[in-house]
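Notes from the 1:1 (GR / supervisor)

We went over the backlog. Supervisor wanted to see one worked example end to end before approving the batch request, so GR pasted a single chain during the call. The sequence is below; no edits were made to it. Supervisor asked that the structure be written out right there so they could see what the output format looks like.
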Amino acid sequence: MNSNILPDFSDKKTLEKYSSAFTLSDMEIFIFPELFYPLVLANIMSPVIWKWRDDTWFKDIEKKNFNSKANRIKQYIIQNYVFNLDLSTWGLTTKTEEIARFSNFFDVDLLRQSNALFGYEGDKYYFDIDIRKHFGLDKFDSDIIPYWKTETVEAMTAFRYKEGFTTGAGECVSLSALYAAAMFIVGRVPLEKIFLIATPLHSQNFVIEKEGLITNNRRIVTKNMWFNGTSLSEKARRALENEKVTIVSHISGFIHILYNEASIDRNAYRIFTEKIKEFLTTEVTTHIFINFLRFKSRYKSLFQFRCDCSGKFRYISLEKMFEYEHTSKFNVSDGTRELLVKEIEGDEFHLSPLQGKLYLNDVEEIIDSQKGKNIDVIKNEVIRASDTAFSQVLSDLFNELNEFIFTEPKLPESEKKYINTYRHDISISDSREMIIDKITGSTGLSELSMLTQYVYRDMERIDWRPFIKAAIERNPVCFNDFSGKDVSQTYAILKQLPDESIYDANRLALPDEVWNFRRGDGIEKAFLLADTILKADRSVKIMIKINHDSVILELGDQKYHFRSGKKFHKTITLENGEIYVI
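Structure output shown during the call:
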């Protein structure tokens, strides 16, 4: 490593940032947005997703088109990972503690303006959903907030060992990082085309391919799906419709809503902005109009459909037609409407027009005749052709239709000070080994590469102090289960767990990962034991001696022995809040 990029851990902000690379809470990524993309690269360095290529599910995937690749990846993720935002998984912290961590180098008032759990209400949206009740926080003191930690692909996959889970799991930021890595490794999508988007309550990706693609938790959303009016698209639209985008992260760097400096390539951000706005905009067509009515149930009751049944007009409410969609492979849209009508029971049709309803047919004719025109032109024409009793509701309808066909994303302002940083040349044709060499070989030139090593937990190449700081300060889950137990009782429980790390090679799990997944290497178990000891008494002196396969935790005259497969030779001393590593 080149010494000019080595982090200075005597600087509190630097130590906090590199320590945050291990816990990666939503709060930490918000404060240190440069941590977001290293998780993607760490997942790409990991052997886990590369093994997916050998799964029969992805046989010959490189020969398929983009949409087929994306759908294959989506289905694999759906089958193997569930969305998890349980408050008990990574524990709780407090606003007071988090503010104390960051107040020396971050404006807390700015935090309250942008972070949902610190006061930001996002216009009326967060008032409507009652943010704390929405996440189950209403039963706690208002100072309590969750430790929503972003999981590495190893931690996500290890959820299958956790009680109550049969597959892997992860929260939304974890899933976005997983998707980005999978789209690159399995889908062969260049990293330059993948952008990570964070909002106060969500994280998703935008992939610049074809018309664009959004990954949303475990699902994918194409442009057609964005405007199809289904419940899935409704959920997918919430974040970009209601929330500010706080971070856009990319292989070239990041841009943050609050920071004046941006490291993302200016041209890449311009292209992203243009493409996502195109994705979120469409024209008014009869197809889009039907999708809107499906999306906005308030307006379904306005319309009836007039159909020619064996030379005679019959009438049916649009609501009834939408009901039949639920059990049919056909729908109300133009392409399969006639086939849907044939499936509807005859007694659902009326011989006379339904009173107080507009003809869908007439509105569709106007939309077709005004194709390409401004929505206000279409609105005025529909209102002019309709009974005046409908004027106000039609005006409201078209105002909401305009919101449906055009979402203006609240992106970070592009007028920033753009900083030139090292540009990584990572190609879809590179092997895993080549990518690892490129990242490890550029740590003297790139903080992204350096942070990636810490997120990846390559303990052979990094300073252990940030890891240990994270281990003893921000792993509260094990405390509940070990509360009331003395050191010997805790030691006995840990000895019964399999001596098996969730991380390969010389990489280490944190104490809460060990306890959540009930397994760990001897070094990892020793840190968990130290964590519980320090919880009871922060002033004690603890020594952890690692000699290849032997690990001994010394507490006064007491020695606690573990076995390790990690092959390190280290002595760690924890005393009065200080960390010493030899």
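Supervisor's comment: Residues 286-405 form one domain.
Batch request approved.
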